[in-house]
Amino acid sequence: MRIRNLRLALVLALIVGVISACSSNNDNGKSSSGGEKTTLTISRWAGPHADDQKELLKQFEKETGITVKMDDVDYGQLQQKQTLNMSTKTGEYDLVWAQEIWIPEYIKAGYLHPIDEYVSNEALNPADFDFNDYNPNLINILKSDGKLYGLPTFIQLPIMVYNNDMLAAEGLTAPKTWSETLAVAKHFHDKGTGIALPAKQGQAAVDIFSSLVRSNNGNYFNADGKLDLTNPANVEAAAFWKDLSAVSMNGSTNWHFDEVNKAVQAGQAPIGFTISGLAGQLEDKANSSVAGKIGYAPIPYGKQAFGTLSVWNWCVTADSKHPEEAYRLAAWLTSKSTEKQMSLKDGQIAARQSLFTDADLVKQFPFFPAVGESLKQADTQPLTADAPKLMEALQTALSALAVGNTEPKAALEKSQQALASVFK
Amino acid sequence: MLGKSSRNLLKAIVLALFGLWTVIPIWMVVMTSFKRQKDIFTVPVKWMFHPTFDNYAKAFSNGDFGRYFMNSGLVAVTSSFLAVALGTLCAYGLTSFGMRRSRAITNFFMLGKLVPAVTMLLPMFVLLHSVGLLGTYVGPILAHTAVNLPFIVWLAISFLKDVPKDLEQSALIDGCTKMQAFRKIILPIILPGVTAAVILSMQYSWNELVFAMQLTNMDTYTLPVGISRFVGSVSIDWGKSSAAATITMVPIIVVGFFIQKYLAEGTTGGAVKG
Amino acid sequence: MTRSNRSYLAGFLVLPAVAVVVLAMIVPLGYAIVMSLFDFQIGHEASGEFVGLHYYIAFFQDDVALHSLLTTLLFTFVALALELGLGIGIAVLLTEMPKRLSKLLRAIYSMPLLISPIIIGLIWRYLYDPTFGLVYQWLGQLGLADEFGGLAKPASALFSIIVADVWQTTPFILLVVTSGLSTIPHEVYEASRIDGAGFLRTLFKITLPMIGKVIVLVTLIRGTDAFRVFDIIFALTNGGPANSTMSLSIFAFKKGFEQYEMGYAMAISLITMLILILLFAPLVKRSAFMTRD
Question: How many beta-carbon pairs under 8 angstroms link B with C?
Answer without folding.
Answer: 300
